[in-house]
Specification:
The chain is an alpha+beta fold and about 140 residues long. The protein has three helices and four strands. The strands form two sheets. It has a two-stranded antiparallel ribbon with strand order 1-2. Helix 1 packs across helix 2. It is globular. About 10% of the residues are buried.
Length: about 140
């Protein structure tokens, strides 16, 4: 059984109540995570065991693995999906997340440091010079 289906349905119902307002989704997802809705069986071995034994799995969103070493879609809602992302090794780089939503760390360690970039000079649309200021970690 997919242990992410209950939290997926919970988020889907709350978002439907907001008429699928895209700006409401991050708060709905974050609230579900804060309220302890992460499944107790959500550990790497259990997730991979479910994948190996499942007769059907949700449509896989990132088959090329653009965002992680192994992106596994574990729930497909009406207008959103839940992924479990596996990284075997990671490097610390400044980046942006190309998604709207919330995330939680199931295992391992994560460091988040936020920065602000102050533009000083635009040489081209591909090359900007400026000052980078750390906001917090």
């Amino acid at each position: 059984m997919n242990c992410f289906a209950p939290i997926g349905r919970r988020i889907d119902e709350a978002w439907l109540a907001c008429n699928y307002d895209e700006e409401a989704l991050p708060e709905i997802a974050a609230q579900a995570l804060q309220e302890g809705a992460i499944p107790t069986g959500a550990r790497a071995l259990e997730i991979l065991r479910w994948l190996a034994q499942a007769t059907a799995i949700p449509l896989q969103i990132d088959l090329e693995g653009k965002f992680s070493d192994l992106p596994l879609t574990v729930y497909q809602g009406r207008h959103f999906f839940i992924q479990v992302l596996f990284w075997m090794s990671g490097t610390t780089i400044i980046h942006e997340h190309g998604f709207s939503g919330a995330f939680a760390l199931l295992a391992g360690r994560s460091l988040e440091t936020r920065y602000h970039f102050e533009l000083v000079k635009r040489t081209s649309r591909h090359l900007l010079f400026g000052e980078l200021r750390r906001l917090g970690a």
